[in-house]
Amino acid sequence: MKRSMKKSNILIVSSIIVLVAITGVFAFLNSAGAGQNKTLEEEAAILITSNGENIAKIDMELFERAGLTDFYADLDTSKTGASRHLYTGIPLNSALQVLDIDIGDYSVVIAKASDGYTVTYDSDEIKDKDNAYIAIKRDGNLLGTRREGGEGPYQIIIRKDAFSQRWCKFLIELELVE
User: Fold this and answer.
1) Of 35, 79, 102, 157, whose CB is crowded by the most CB atoms within 10 A?
2) Residue 88 — very low, low, confident or very high, per pLDDT cuts 50/70/90?
3) CA torsion angle for 153, 158, 164, 167 (degrees, to 10)?
């Protein structure tokens, strides 16, 4: 009886050690991505990637070159009813065009946020010139960073999304998929 208890205890302790080691490895691997997210947030930059390679960055300077525009969108959250807000930003397709990126070469855009949220858009949604925007202001105020309690510094607004469910706050990366 004691022998089987001893074997059982050894098995349990060994299993715990293996699980702790696996958790440590995954935490280490994830820390590199967290560092990049923090850097992009601090730089106020959106990384553009395709096929695992960094191909461009969107920053505040690009917004100035592309020309900021004001647009209205209805924000509808689970905590509040629908409310109309004035946003300032640029159409996502215009930002890509300034970078000499043709959205027609891609089928999907995956937006990634610093909090781990991801959302996928069909390239036709991005091509629609009055639908997909990258916003930097709401009602005249900068969106603010996640650390500041804001929703930015960048947020994708999909104007034709009736319930705001596919918007992406804390935007840090756009992955272009062929």
Assistant:
1) 157
2) very high
3) -40
Helix (H) or strand (E) holding 85: strand 83-91
Give Cα separations from 74 to 80, 83, 158, 164 (angstroms): 11, 5, 10, 8
Residue 145: strand pairing partners = 152
pLDDT tens, position by position, 97-114: 999 999 999 999 999 999
3-state SS class at 94 = helix
Location of structure tokens 């601090």:
42
Report d(CA 79, CA 9) in Å as an integer. Answer: 49
Tokens of 102: 């043709």
Residue 24 Cα to chain centre, angstroms:
25
pTM for this model (two decimals)? 0.74
Cα–Cα distance measured from residue 146 to residue 41, given in angstroms and rounded to the nearest whole number:
9
d(CA 158, CA 135): 10
Name the region of 75 (left: φ>0; alpha: ψ -120 to 50; beta: rest): beta
In tens, the pLDDT along 3-52 reads: 666 666 777 777 677 666 666 555 555 554 544 445 555 667 899 999 98
